[in-house]
Amino acid sequence: MAALDGMTIIALGLPFIAALVAPALVRRLGHNAAWVLALFPFFVFVRFLEFLPEVSAGSAITGGFQWVPSYNVSFSWFIDGLSLIFALLISGIGTLIVFYTGGYLKGHAQLGRFYSFIFLFMGAMLGLVISDSFLMLFVYWELTSITSFLLIGFDHGREASRRSALQALVVTGLGGLSLMAGLLVVWNITGVTQLSLLVNLGDEVRASPFYLMALILLLGGAFTKSAQFPFHFWLPNAMEAPTPVSAYLHSATMVKAGVYLVMRMNPAFGDTVAWETILPVFGGTTLIVGSLLAIRQTDLKLMLAYTTVSSLGLMVMMTGFGSEHAAAAGVLYLIAHSMFKGAFFMLAGNIDHEAGTRDITKLGGLRKLMPISFLAAMAAAFSMGGLPPFFGFLSKEEIYYGLWHADPWSIFMTVVAIVGNGLMFVVGFAIAIKPFLGREVKTPKHAHEAPLLMWIGPATLATGGLLAAVFSPIFHQYVSSPMVSAVSGEAEEVTISLVPHIGMPLLLSLVTIVFAVLVYLKVDSARSAIAATLTAIGWGPDKGFDQFVSGMVRLSRRVTKIAQPGQLDIYMTVTFAAVAVTLLAPMIIFDELPAMPAWPADAEIHELAVILIAFIGLGAVIAAKDRLTAIVSLGIQGFAVALIFMLFGAPDLSFTQFMVETLSVVILALVMTRLRLTLSDHRPTGQKIGDATVAIACGAGFMLYLLAVTEVPFRSYLSDFFIAYSKVIAHGANVVNVIIVDFRGTDTLGEIAVVMVTGLAILSLIRVRPGWKPGMLAENDPDAPTEEKK
């Protein structure tokens, strides 16, 4: 195991540094700042590229430090084949996105702010995929949700953008809470908090009675992040974001975070019936739903968004299928998808930017006007459709290698894959052919080829898909095989190449192409049929989300009206009733009521006199006809307690009690003269009985609790500590003073601050004199001005 060096740590922090400097660079250089800002992710890409030989040889790079050693919490990294390839995709495609943003948002007033958001997101994704610590993983996971919220809602002046951003944050945020709970359960099962250790504890995880709970919670985080059905609706709505966001978040980064988590957990959670059932079922459903909804769309970005949903479903399905080539198929498709979908999204932005529309029915004949974009689109379509000589062909062949078996389950999942792949073939070639070929259609803007900053990205990714397939042996050695080995938990070698392999996978590929061509020829009819079906169904998860949010708002308002009606007497009654229940219920339920103390036979007359004074004061409070008399009578109870403290040898405590009671009476009297209160208590009898019941319950609860405490055998180790060390450490002979001033100095400072704030509030209440109006002050305030005094 090699350790992370300083340069790697710097590389991990570079996106956050770029986020800080981006606004200043944009103010100085304008959109040309893209050439400088692209150096930040490019350096990260080069740095991670240096690890390829070591990782491909079977090593892993680790590093970090202990954060909270007592809880085994670390800030640590783990770079193996899976995390390394993700890091390369994030930084490599991120470099192209920085270029693309400079051209797409040229002249935008908030370009600097956009760059800051995109770099923050890039840093969060890098941290997520290389995190070894559970805590790091969760923190970066949530940071991707927050930064994607900022990116999706970048155009915050539009209501649709704000809604989409909020929807993505709510769905993925709830998934993040599910992930946190799942990680805590895994921690409880294994006792480890590092992913690098977890992958070797699969037998222990699978044998645990909490396995299913942990699995469902972790999949809750993965499925929401990667838009698996029925949580798929947020991803297409996120197309409200600018196209650079769509090209980055929804091809290589955020939406693949859930797929990354599933692949990372495969060695520990895989090879069970639950794993190999839940993932294929939800993944297959997402594949079909996404591809059908993609056929329905006419907006280029929405078509691509729904095929992203279906592609994510295909990756999840293959990761959980459990056959020999299934994991390799998921990995190859993930890499291919990152390249062709990133290219497609940027090309959709090119068309929109240069032609003024993304509606595929209003586009045509752009091939001569945008030749570079056309070539890149055809390359991306070939890869998306699984045709040679592109990397998508290799991934599709591997998919059918992994799925095809003679049992009914495998046959069913193979049919699902054929339908999903065929429909994505249709969408890919529809986007590549319809806007560019045919007769030229008049568009809102006079179309021409996009500038260099906007076509360098799609051209690079399309070429990458070609080169990866042509040089597949080298690519597999350094990229595919290490990644598949990390996902499988054991060393595996990927060997598939462009050389045709006669057999069932090739036959299934031909079936897919034939099916896709037939649907493509009738794509308008298919679109109408799907639209009619969805209209007939009516309700869907997207509408359900709005209903859920509005329902939560209505529920919150009703709960608020009940819990916060704006009446102080209700708040106080509920608070004291809760205190009484908290004190009395456990003792009554668990039969832990303390024994009543016996009356002391040798009680002194002065002790009995103090108790009698307390009872007289209690009677005076109850019998008082006005509030001021009740307040003064209430002080008698406190003075009686202070006398008891004095009689039993605690003069300093007695002095404190005298001061507190005196101040309480004075403060309450002052407050009462400043409030609009009637002279006497006008509560109805029923309310008085209820309040008296709560008061007696609270008093009885505290009395019984104190009696229960005094029945516990006294442990003197704290007293012994303070007696032994008060003079040695704090140089004070008065133990009580030393405890208050030294050992509990911060606590005492807090108490002093509370008293000070209370005093300031009282002073304000006494000194403030608002403009006099008749009836403004209390009826019992002798200083209230009259009309004659005015």
Automatic annotation (TrEMBL):
Subcellular location(s) per record: Cell membrane; Membrane
Predominant localisation class: membrane
Transmembrane segments: 6-26, 33-49, 77-102, 114-131, 166-190, 210-235, 277-295, 302-321, 327-348, 369-391, 411-432, 452-475, 502-521, 568-590, 605-624, 631-649, 655-677, 689-709, 748-766
GO terms under biological process: monoatomic ion transport
Domain MrpA C-terminal/MbhD: 613-676
Domain NADH:quinone oxidoreductase/Mrp antiporter transmembrane as annotated: residue spans: 131-417
Annotated NADH-Ubiquinone oxidoreductase (complex I) chain 5 N-terminal domain residues: 68-115
Keywords: Antiport, Cell membrane, Ion transport, Membrane, Transmembrane, Transmembrane helix, Transport
Domain MrpA C-terminal/MbhE stretches: 689-770
Topology within the bilayer: Multi-pass membrane protein
Single GO MF annotation: antiporter activity
InterPro entries named among the record's database cross-references: CPA3_Na-H_Antiporter_A, MrpA_C/MbhD, MrpA_C/MbhE, ND/Mrp_TM, Proton_antipo_N
GO cellular component, one term: plasma membrane
PANTHER family for the chain: NA(+)/H(+) ANTIPORTER SUBUNIT, NA(+)_H(+) ANTIPORTER SUBUNIT A
Protein name (database record): Putative monovalent cation/H+ antiporter subunit A
Species of the source: Pseudohoeflea suaedae
Lineage: Bacteria, Pseudomonadati, Pseudomonadota, Alphaproteobacteria, Hyphomicrobiales
